[in-house]
Amino acid sequence: MPWFDGALIAGPTAQFDLADRGLTLGDGVFDTALARDGRIVFEAAHVARLAAATRALGFFVDPARITQAMRAVADGAGELAAIRTTVTRGAGPRGLAPPAEPRPVLWASAAPLPPALPFASLTLHPTDIRRNDTSPAARWKTLGYLDAVLAAAEARAAGFDEALFCNTHGRVACAGTGNLFAVFGTRLVTPPLSEGVLAGIVRAELLGLAPGLGLVVEERPLELPDFLGAEAVFLTNSLRGLAPARAVGATAFAEHPAVTALSEALRAAMQA
Fold first, then answer.
1. Torsion 168-97-87-111 (CA) sign
2. Is there a contact between 118 and 30 (Cβ–Cβ < 8 Å)?
3. For the chain, is the Cβ count within 10 Å smaller at the N or the C terminus?
4. What is the pLDDT of residues 191-210, one digit of tens each?
5. Torsion over CA: 113, 119, 125, 131 (sign)
6. Residue 12 pLDDT more than 90?
């Protein structure tokens, strides 16, 4: 059952204020987490990031309320589930100016996740749609996801699994639903947040795990030809975990021992 504004509800629908700014202006944020047998993987990090995102937008949601909603829908959601938690600023008057005293609305839901999805390999399609690294919205999971929606449709039409975004400078930023990494020998490279990158939960986890596996972590800008010249590339997000890329456009990639080691370390961390 979904959770809406303080309680579990029966069925997939709820009464919703049509003046809610999440609906009219995309004024809100969301989080997607993985649940295993009712337990939220990396729960504290997901709650903290969503709470920080609301503060960045200028309103406040108690982290305990976020935790309560996530746990409520994860309980009984099955062996593997995607937990989506959404917060809007709430209703407001017409126009862009936010209400003086926001009344945020929070809801959460759970959906079964195919067991084959986590850690499965994929293909990436470089899109001409640009990630706006100048926008504060690039740092948070805001409700305005139309660029990702259109890029995903473009990728599917071209026969790929995911879209790859470059930023306004033409450098590699992220995938439509995840962070990107490249392996060069013993170096693990990922674009810095300043490139228009979301601070991914799994991204942070891997940055912490990599040194223990003998990898030198570098957060630095990556030109697309540099990225395509890596020994291996992969995507990370909370549902996929670590997804090795079999191909980026016309460039093919083989299995790599560093990616295998990172996958094993991440699997262990997700079970902890």
1. negative
2. no
3. C
4. 999 999 999 999 999 999 99
5. positive
6. no
How far is 48 from 59, CA to CA, in rounded Å?
Answer: 14
The CA distance from 253 to 244, in Å, is 9
Residue of 165, 122, 164 lying closest to 252 (CA atoms): 122
Smallest Cα–Cα separation from 120: which of 271, 263, 222?
A: 263
Rounded to the nearest 5 degrees, what angle is found at the Cα of 38, between the Cα atoms of 36 and 41? Answer: 50
Question: Which residues have CB under 8 Å from 113's CB, separation 6+?
Answer: 34, 80, 81, 82, 239
Residue 250, token pair as written in the block: 């016309």
The residue written with tokens 């990922």 in the block is: 190
Q: Which helix (H) or strand (E) holds 50?
A: helix 43-57
DSSP line for 73-92: HHTTS-SEEEEEEEEE--B-
* Mean of per-residue pLDDT scores for the chain: 96
- Identify the CA nearest to 86 among candidates 34, 138, 25, 143: 143
Which pair of tokens denotes residue 175? 């995938």
